[in-house]
Amino acid sequence: MREASIPSVRRLPGDLLLVNRPVSAIKPHHHHSFMVPFSDKEHQSTDWRGIHSRICMLVVPLRTPVAVLGSEEERAHRETQTRRRQVHLLELTKTEAHKKLYEGEYHLAIPAALQALRFSMQVYGPNSEKLVPAYLLLGESSIGLNQLSQAEDYLSLAKWALMKKSAGKKLQQQQQQQQQQTHPPRHQQSDTGEGGEALVGTGESEKEEDEVLALLNRNFGLLYLKKGKTDDAVRCFALDIYHLSIAKNDPEDLSVTGGYFHLGTVLNTLPNRAVDCHALFDRVAEIWRTALMRPTTSLQLDEAQQAEGIQILTAISTCITTTPAALFAAAKAQHALALLLSRSSSEPKSRAKAAAEKALEMDPGAGVMDPRLTEVANWEVTVT
């Protein structure tokens, strides 16, 4: 794939990102009341295919001026509706960026990630740690395009935002301790209020923190892998697995398999670690196969999760090796891939059928264990 050019990043107070382009080169493009600057037609096309075809009409209400201010209740209702639209667009742009990343279309992930950053700033402010997921999307996109210096800039912004949050929490804890020493409570109070509700901190916030730390370590692992720093990459992928396992309260959750896969990929490049690599690949394939063999209603995957699963399982099923452990893992992965493709509304049925046929060829007994696999292999597909 041709390396795409990404505008360089410039830091401003509050961690605001600007695009470094000559002023004379920026030409505004107007579409449905949404002003977007483009340096040339190629950038315009990339931006449209990357995200604006999905969100163009959705941003119209946000850009339409209000003719009458209205009453206080009407203004409050309008602000609530605006925030809901911004949050919806934020989730949509993040999902689309993830999807493009897993499909290997890194140049198309950049526009979606930039829009995710923009909506994150609108919803949470320019100094919030909630901007970290968007920074990580931009970092991973840059890694995919082999623009490592820029990727490191984005990941450093993410790390800095988390460090500021951590420092703020420590300062708050110190102030609380000093206040307690100055004004000790008359009676020792427990950490829970009436009804058992926590007074300080929530498990949900800790879960989100672990999820973000997992993604940060995964991205740094990918960066170190590109730089040839395998020891650092192994450490980061191990931390990715650790934090995400805690966040999901399950080391075999589907979201954790990305960490296992990347760790296995690194180990496969090291001498005498092929056995460990194949064991990790087998675990990934087994987790996906087990989840996909459950009833369809019990597993809901969004487009990004489906794209990630297809990427991982395709890589494992096509791993070129002749060892029994690797072949067994590849057969499991092919089985899971066929089931995943059969559930996807964006993939042609012919691809799912071909994957199922190959899975039965690799492991004829899989059809007995899972009749659904045989059913997909027997699909009638019209060739156009």
TrEMBL record:
Ranges of compositional bias, category Low complexity: 172-181
Chain intervals for the UniProt region annotation (Disordered): 169-204
Protein name: Uncharacterized protein
PANTHER family (UniProt xref): ZINC FINGER MYND DOMAIN-CONTAINING PROTEIN 12
Organism field: Powellomyces hirtus
